[in-house]
Inverse folding.
């Protein structure tokens, strides 16, 4: 009989969102009058339609494919040059970052890229993640066999967890022992925190000293409103030699269902081969992508290109400020209700300290019962997320305002 990848058996059975669904269903069944009033502020998916500029560009791209003269079949697996060029121009050169178009790999998502990157890394790396963390980084390492089993708190053996809590101002301390790979996500999901230049410089310096690789997830870059906060790791001197950056059109342009993202692998960034030689990661990622991936559809890449048009830039700024206004409404309503909240200024997530010492799940149940609002328990993102709950700003204004009215009426302490 065919055997399986036993590493999958170590996974904590996709526990978080199914458990949220189960509790919401149970509540709705027991309280049919309240069922229609449930407002979901748990999920990290956008709600607003695509920017008009992208829609127009994608319609035109469909027309291109409808005639022999302008038809496109397979494109380059790393993406069309016109998209790579416009990305480099707007997202990097304009910010003083020395990144060239052939270092940008277009893909159908940051989730799959942050998973796929493990293909080109060895199995003996010591890997660090923040705690709480975007679960994809952890689960993909479990699947790849880079960890042991999970303990009672859900922490996997072999991973180095760097706690980020109110106590350290959501800024992880550098590891006390040497790590080879570090996942960083800023602005952060789930805590909504940002990293200053000094913080990122500390990480780049650490990586240089220890020969570590930083995997930098900047999916929420467009949400940065605070002055002086870097939008790319490459704004930090020396980052080209130590960091890969993941970017996505999911959260700035609403492409969660459309699918387009990109990963930057600078030339000259190397890893160590078993024979002791240094090998460029750029060539390995190029090889990996051309073998396992056949590119993002022409239509979608034309849509992504339109994000960088003048109209596209205005429209995505409108989308982002719409969600950030939701975040402000959430943050201020919770503060008025006497709660301690973090994030929501340069991120679409508000990270709440649970009141009165409730656990994450206790507060989840309280919110659901008393206000019919669904959040995401912080403990679902890692053991150090215990005692927190995440609310997402991805919803209609109407729902956000109604949810916060209920918080004000019911939950004020
Ligand atoms: C939403 C999100 C992404 C984007 O993933 P896509 O696959 O590009 O949709 C990446 N990282 C984090 C932390 C996210 O929350």
């Amino acid at each position: 009989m065919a055997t399986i990848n036993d590493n999958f058996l170590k996974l904590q059975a996709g526990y978080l969102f199914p458990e949220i669904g189960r509790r919401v269903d149970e509540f709705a069944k027991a309280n049919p009058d309240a069922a229609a009033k449930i407002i979901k502020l748990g999920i990290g998916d956008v709600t607003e339609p695509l920017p008009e500029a992208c829609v127009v560009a994608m319609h035109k791209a469909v027309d291109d494919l409808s005639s022999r003269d302008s038809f496109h079949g397979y494109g380059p697996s790393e993406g069309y040059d016109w998209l790579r060029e416009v990305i480099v121009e707007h997202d990097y050169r304009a910010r003083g970052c020395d990144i060239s178009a052939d270092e940008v790999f277009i893909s159908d998502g940051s989730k799959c890229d942050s998973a796929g990157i493990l293909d080109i890394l060895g199995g003996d790396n010591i890997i660090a993640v923040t705690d709480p963390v975007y679960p994809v980084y952890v689960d993909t390492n479990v699947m790849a066999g880079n960890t042991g089993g999970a303990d009672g708190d859900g922490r996997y053996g072999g991973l180095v967890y760097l706690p980020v809590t109110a106590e350290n101002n959501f800024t992880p301390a550098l590891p006390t022992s040497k790590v080879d790979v570090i996942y960083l996500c800023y602005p952060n999901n789930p805590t909504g925190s940002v990293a200053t230049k000094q913080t990122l410089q500390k990480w780049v310096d650490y990586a240089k000293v220890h020969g570590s690789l930083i995997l930098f997830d900047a999916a929420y870059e467009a949400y940065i409103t605070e002055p002086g906060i870097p939008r790319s790791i490459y704004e930090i001197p020396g980052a080209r030699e130590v960091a890969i950056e993941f970017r996505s059109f999911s959260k700035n342009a609403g492409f969660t269902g459309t699918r387009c993202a990109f990963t930057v692998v600078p030339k000259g960034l190397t890893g160590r081969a078993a024979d002791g030689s240094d090998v460029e990661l750029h060539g390995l990622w190029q090889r990996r992508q051309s073998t396992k991936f056949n590119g993002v559809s022409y239509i979608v890449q034309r849509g992504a290109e339109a994000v960088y048009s003048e109209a596209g830039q205005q429209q995505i700024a409108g989308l982002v400020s719409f969600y950030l206004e939701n975040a402000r409404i959430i943050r201020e309503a919770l503060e008025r209700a006497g709660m301690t909240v973090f994030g929501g200024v340069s991120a679409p997530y508000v990270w709440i300290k649970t009141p009165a010492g409730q656990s994450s799940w206790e507060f989840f149940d309280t919110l659901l019962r008393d206000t019919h609002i669904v959040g995401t328990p912080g403990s679902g993102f890692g053991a150090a997320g215990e005692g927190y709950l995440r609310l997402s700003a991805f919803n209609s204004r109407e729902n956000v305002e109604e949810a916060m009215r209920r918080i004000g009426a019911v939950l004020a302490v």
User: Anything to note?
Assistant: The CA atoms of residues 47 and 395 lie 6 Å apart. The chain has a mean pLDDT of 96. The first helix runs from residue 16 to 30.
